[in-house]
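Lab notes, practical 5.
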Amino acid sequence: MHVRAPSQVLADLRERTPYVAVFAPRRAHPFAIALERLLKEYGFAAYLLEMGASPVDVWRAARATQPETGAVFVEYAPGDYQVLALLLGVLRWRARGAAVVICRRGERFRSPRQRIAYALTRLLARAELRVDADDPMRTIAAWRPSLMPPRAPLARGWVVRSDPARVDGIVGILRCPSCGGPLRPSGEGLACERCARTHPIVDGIPVLLREGARAQVEEHEHGYEAGDAYELGKEENRAWLEIGLAKRDLVGRLLRGHTARASLDVGCGDWGFHHDVVRGLGSELAVAGDISLKLVRHARMAAAAPGRVHHLVFSAEALPFRDGVFDLAYCSEVLEHVGDPERALAEIARVGRGGRVILTAPNEEVTGKLEEGHVQTFGYDSFLALVRRHVDVRDVRGVYLYEEEPRRAYEARWRGLPVGPLRLRLALLRGEREPRRSLSILVDGILR
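Output from the prediction step:
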């Protein structure tokens, strides 16, 4: 059999589906880590998730797979998963349109049932690759061209950037948050040509804040580990995770068919819009930022396409960019944290005027105060009134009809049966059509 060069295989795959996922069992998985790193080096948007051994664990992992993921690599060895678990996961991935590639380790099957279940799983998968000494380059070289996935819509116009995004690539669009003057590299920072103030660059991340700016989020993060709410095994977070996934999928549907030139995530937190919805990546420029260096560091570490996204520290109330740079802006669950949301929206409109914007905020007139750090309280009418002063609103949706606390809904039982997941799902479906009564309000519009 002719074995192609690994670089040729990867280039062929990237031309067909540049957005891929790597799933690994909850144990030491050096192969999966090396595979994710290799894919990013070759210009893919790639992310790694661990999943447990049970059918429920694998089903949930498949549910968490981001929209438009074209290929799913699954590290597998007999004993990693329960007998039917992987079969259920492959069925769900296929239903979502992803091609499944099983990366199988050379261990023996432990029972006839295990062998039969894997044979069925293999029939549904796109390809099987034998893991070669934890070396993804040698493993992927055996992928036959006839088993490559079909070309995904996302592949059209995909921009390949494998090196980490560098500050010098965006200096031309940056402005001093204090005076609005242009910035230039100066030693270990960026100096303003107008007011002469120097802004530091910490671990490769520009910190562009006005003097005296307060990182409000950091006052309440002492007990918070960045990213912990997204661990799939944390049952206490399950209801909120499902709500987050529903919002992610809603945003993905709204952006279907939309291609941005330059995108901005205002308040990216510890993951960010560009990680969750790869359709939102600007073809020429993508920037994500938050007022917390801790959160921005995690977002950069977790980035699916690190070569495509520039990560900065900035305040929503003083965006450090020149006017009209972006044609897509995203600001989710941020305005309730800022002291002057009117100014923050005016800043988003300034840097993205004429472009599309997606905004979300918690509907705390319905839910009550959700977090200690929320310094603003929005309801449906007050949020829409604020937004309409800066945005031509095209669509308003809701996320989760708030008739009861999400965790209580998720844990509901009827005659001993766990009906909670269905109950939560119905509340999500109803909430999208009833934003006035929903947990979160989502607005899609054009900045003016």
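Observations recorded by the TA: The first strand starts at residue 19 and ends at 25. The domain at 206-217+230-447 is CATH 3.40.50.150 (Rossmann fold).
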